[in-house]
Target: NADPH-dependent 7-cyano-7-deazaguanine reductase
Amino acid sequence: MSKKPSKSNNSRSDSPALQLGRAVEWPDAPEKAKLDRVPNPQGGTEYLVRFTVPEFTSLCPVTGQPDFAHLMIDYAPGQWLLESKSLKLYIASFRNHGAFHEDCTVMIGKRIAAEIKPKFLRIGGYWYPRGGIPIDVFWQTGRVPKGLWLPEQGVAPYRGRG
Model:
């Protein structure tokens, strides 16, 4: 008796099984990383999901020096949830990726939105200073759904020595 190949848990006939629960190789570039989605068991409920990434790293595309950020990702799920292990692998894929702060922040937001098609998504990239200038980058998909509680992101603005 032969076994049928198991279907993916994320209901995509064109993609392999989820990365969750098995060993996977770390992607070495954002375009090689796979973001997994899982069905939202609370699809009829308006709620917010928050991912906090306090140690995001990428490389300056000009100098090759490391850049550091605190990312806050908030989304109101639709049919899909973003699977957290795949997010961790995706975020780690930026460690050797050279891109400006603005590009990294917006790229991450757009990629997540494309994969899970949330009702709403916003990302705040709070970048640590390089050359004495912190850069904060914000992007969102549209208006906040009516009645959705959207808390402040809670990341203190950079104050310097002043």
About this structure: Helices lie at 84-92, 101-116. The two ends are 74 Å apart (CA to CA).
